Amino acid sequence: MNKEQTITGVIRGTGACVPKRILDNKEIAGFVDTSDEWIRERTGVRRRRIAEKETTVSMACEAGRQAVEEAGISPDEIDMILVATGSPDQIFPCTACRVQEALGADGAVGFDLNAACSGFLFAYNTAQAYITSGICRTVLVIGSESISRLVDWTDRGTCILFGDGAGAVLLQAAEGKTYRPAAHSDGSGGAALTGPGVRNRIRSIDKDGRESKTEYITMNGKDVFQFAVRKVPQVIQEVLERNELFLEDIDWFVLHQANARIVDAVARRLRLDIGKFPMNLQDYGNTSSASIPILLNELNRKGVLKKGQKLVLAGFGAGLSWGASVLDWDLER
Residues 17, 117, 136, 159: which is the catalytic one? Predict the structure, then answer.
């Protein structure tokens, strides 16, 4: 049942957009007590892109346009646009509706989805559900973030990690193998990684009845690291078991690009060659929901991914949330 021939969503195009502004570690060391060596040793990040003129909407539009163009379809063929973002330019209208207008996808319904760094994976799974149920045939899935606007640039623990950008995939219905995803949330661990709300403030009442405000992203790095290196290998094994697959069946493991040490630890725990875990976080930092589709686009455009290969996508982040999905790569370059 898990792998029977039926209707599934196949990636027909990818796209990405990153800001022009490059902020490297040496420049960060000029205003925060850190160094290029310290950052690279602990995160693997060498540089990241920072949105100045670009916005969450503009980057999403460009990434989506590229995916549609590669797929060779007209925007009016798109049934749905899903945008994963935790850093929208505005609460409403949603980013997806702004993308719909810009692309001229007049027949598409659009909405945003926020699951932080797991957002693209959860949006991808949502798109698959709409396609396999027969509700939609063509869905544009985008992850777009302007995380730098939510970062405290005096906090060494967070400002060294994040970057901005967008990535997209265009899914179309086709006959193929369907794969069951695995996804989880643990709200009790949410305090490990939190972010601001409207106008960069979350207003809440503490146990003594006093109002507290959170203006920026805050993170307990140790807790997040331990969560990721424990849960990601588990969820990868879970998604493989659900689909009667083995580690050796998978050609590439495309993980959320949070930290090189996390990716290394996952590979070690699964006893796999790190070469099966492509990384580009050294150039972009943690772009949250945009990281997986930016990496997919890079691998696609470079011709690394071959038709017929099997991929595992795995996302993890605030919520806490985590999950994994399997797909068959169908594009040829």
Answer: 117
